[in-house]
Every structure is written in structure tokens, then in C-alpha cells.
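Page 42, continued from yesterday. The earlier attempt failed because a stray header line got pasted into the input along with the sequence. Redoing it now with the clean sequence only.
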Amino acid sequence: MFMYGIQLLGSLSEESIKSRRQLFKSFGWTDFHISELVRRNPSAFLPSEETNRKKMDFLMNELGYNPDYLAAHSALFTYSLNNRLMPRHRVLRVLKEKGLLGCNFYSASLKTE
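This time it went through. C-alpha cells are written below.
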């Protein structure tokens, strides 16, 4: 992870890092949560602010996850919102409605095609 952290620092300006921190704080994240996310998965900070805004809106407002959970499950920020997270959520919602749900969203999002 150290090398990914170095890549993060080399890829983003100080201003970009500050604006991304502010974005996370606007969703109720604390400095601890942000540090934990970056420590676990520095590449979660690399997508554009708009991409991260959409992911956090979906994960926090649609699915109801809190910053503690998301910081601990940082892999969710590395997946495509439109190609992975949202389609799997729709499938799991249908399975849950039919009483066939056998796993949670995080487990389903980890599985590859």
C-alpha cells in the first residue's frame, strides 16, 4: 500500500487532495475516517471528485452505509458505479424481494464475473 500512497501524492496536487477531503467531510466523514480510507486503499482518493461524489451518494444515501463501514470496506470505492455497484444492487434488491438473498451487498460486489 505504501507505493500506492506515493502514487497518490505524485498524482494529485495539494489543492486536489484538500478538495477531496472537503468532499468526504461534506458527507459527514471525519479526519479519522478519511485517513483510514486512504491508509487501507490510497487509490480510493484518485477518481475525480464528481466520481467520488456519485459513489458516496449511492453508498451512503441509497444503501445507507456510514463512514465507519465505508472506511473499513474501502474496496467499494475502486469499483465502477455504473458497471458494478448499481447493477449488483438492483439484482440483490430483486433477490431480497423474492426471499432468495444469500449474501450481503459487500460480498456480492467482491465477486468477479
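Notes: The helical segments are 2-11, 14-26, 31-40, 49-62, 67-72, 81-97, 105-110.
Reminder to self: strip header lines before submitting.
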